[in-house]
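Input chain follows. Return structure tokens only.
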Amino acid sequence: MLHTPSGGAGHGTAAAETGLMSIGTVLNVLREEFPEVTISKIRFLESEGLIEPQRTPSGYRKFSAADVERLGHVLRMQRDLYLPLKVIREHLEALERGETVQLPVVGRQRDADAGEAASGAPTAARIGRDQLLAAAGIGERELAEWESYGLLTQVEDGVYDAEAVTVAGLVTELGRFGIEPRHLRAMKAAADREAGLVEQVVAPLRRHRNPQTRAHAEARAKELAGLTVKLHAALVQTALGVRLP
């Protein structure tokens, strides 16, 4: 549940009086639940017609609490259900008409439900090739190209890690700025090296006979992965001389 702040110095006098928020304030609110969301992501969702913030006479975006809730709803459907924007838009339009729409269940949620039903514990998230194409809104040619550069990899025949939808979405967004998949090979190589470093640290724990120690290895891997991602982001920002809000 997103909690919308009631106002303050960061909103500006006019925004505090009207209850509207700047895009930077909205970003801070959303990042409580969606740490990887960016201003460009919010602008992209606006350009796709999924959100319509108000505009000041000078052109600045101003978001209401309802706008923020709508953004959160869109981001959850992307994150948890791996739905393409077209399906999300149709779902929102149906809700506005007062209709009830049954959303498809794919990706992590589907696999977790199936795993819990079978064994009482969640299983690794997987997604089929057709589901990946639909969720990412791409075609076979694009998927084959991205696979050729190692950006997407099958874990078994026709099956991908559910995180492949996130990767596909980011590759698509970067493409809007003229960054092609072939340009991303260096990023993939850097990610592989970082993953190898984490694996080197946790490998001895994963081989341990004690189940609790092996479980600790997974927790340690997640912690290290989070730290490497933050370090990578900080290094890129430093190299570019920019600061994200």
